[in-house]
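As a warm-up, study this chain.
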Amino acid sequence: MIQKILFSQPRPETAHNPYTRLEEQFNVQCEFHQFIHIEGLTAKEFRQQHINPLDYTAVILNSKLGAEHYFRLCEEMRINVPDSMHYYCNSEQVGLYLQKFINYRKRKVFFPETGNKFEDILPAMHRRPNEKYLMVLSDIHNHDVINMFADNHVEVQPAIMYRTVTTPWPADQTFDYDLIALFTPAGVTSLRENFPDWKQGPTLIAAFGEGTVRALEEAGYRVDIEAGPGKTFASLPMAIADYLENNQ
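Now compare it with the structure written out below.
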């Protein structure tokens, strides 16, 4: 019988959300705890990569977070980012977010017209064969994107500027849930680091995405519910609702 569900992410800010509907429909209790958080590298840590941002004519950004840490580190290292710098972003949202940091002009910011695939800005890159690219990344990142650029003859220098860190579990909070929902491989790492002696037993685990499923299986956990691209359900709340509908 599922009564308490833990979601490894912050509580939604709005009252009307899929988790509230789960509680109302199935009489379950949903709790939230952010298993991971982001820390920016210090200037000293970044310099250990022996990368000088001014050696590059363009920056590749895959998130607003990446933009924030790029400009933060440049400021900490007293680097004046030149107005001539180009920015290649994986989405319009990231591209427009740059207005917070630069004098925004379309001719220096490139992003896909639809979607969030870097493949869609390859034509713009190929039109500038002399561009030198620096890609802002987390310590945990998708190497497939780097390989995609290499396969398309675009040389990219990865630059780690922030990292994913385990958020400690509160000492005064018990860990007794009937179902745990994890969204990222880093969340799996956090589970192991916070509870190294925890045995899954009858506790169900729901996983979003192939990477999370793989990380759980490699860690020796059993995956009971799956959601994500290519799955029957696109979201974990939907997959969990289906499970509860058929098993409660």
